[in-house]
Structure formats: C-alpha cells, structure tokens
Amino acid sequence: MSEPHDGTPSAATLYLSGRTLDDVGTTRDFVRSALRREDPDIVHTAVLLTSELATNALIHADRDADLAPTPTPHLAYPRPFHVTVDACFQEICILVCGKGSRLAVVKPKKDREWDESGRGLALVAALSETWGTHGDAFSRTVWFVLKRTPTPIVA
C-alpha cells in the first residue's frame, strides 16, 4: 500500500560504475525506494521502464555498441551511467544518462516475436506519457514521464 504524500517535488540521482550487469538491479531498487510513497502500479511501471533504459545504457552505450557483454555479470570495460528520479507535482520523470551512442529510436521488431531483445524503447514509448532522448557521441540521456496523482495527507 502506498503512503500518502502532499505532492511536493523531490529528486534523487544514483551514479553507477557500469562495471557489472548487476547495476540494472541496483537501479530497480533505487527507483522503488525513491517512489515508495507512490501508487504501486506507477512504481511497477517506473521500475520496468528504468530497467530497460539501464540495460540499454550498459549494452549499447559506446563505440563497441555492437558487441554483447561477456556471459558473466561483469562487463569487459566500464560503462558508467546515472539515473535521476524527479517526482514533480503531477508527473514523475526518470532520466538515464550514460556514454554517448547513436540516436535512440524505436524500430519495429522484424525478428521472431519471442526474441528477448529489441523491445526496450518500444515498451518505454507504449507505457509512458511521453519520452525522449538527447545527446551526442559523448553523452546520451533517455527519459520518460509517468502521470502522478498526488494523494493529500489527511491530518
């Protein structure tokens, strides 16, 4: 059950080394904690979408973007990134910023429908109010917005 809140804006940022795929789980825990007073459905969606963006930051975020990570949770080289959760009056904005890469775009999946990769940004586009990206070859931020319904605190 969510705790009531007064709609006061709050923001928090987590910086990660990008040395291991375990950083994705750390981002999920961070978002859950930052949004602990929100509606559980919003928290679940925020955690899912952040997980997708954090995975993208680790796997696609540099000059070796076409190389998959090693089979172990440890990556061959670090890909540092950070996650910001910004809960404003009527919306929650989550930003994932990492090393630069080509422009993030949603492309229709042409492979088999049971393939596990290639759907992250499509999920972000489908489940968020809006999303976007900005950056260049040095830094890229991908963000999304979810609607927030503040619950007044009853005295």
UniProtKB/TrEMBL annotation:
Q: Could you tell me what this protein is called?
A: ATP-binding protein
Q: What are the GO MF terms of this UniProt record?
A: ATP binding
- Which branch of life, at top level? Bacteria
List the InterPro entries: Anti-sigma-factor_SerPK (IPR050267), HATPase_C_sf (IPR036890)
Going by the UniProt record, its keywords in alphabetical order are:
ATP-binding, Nucleotide-binding
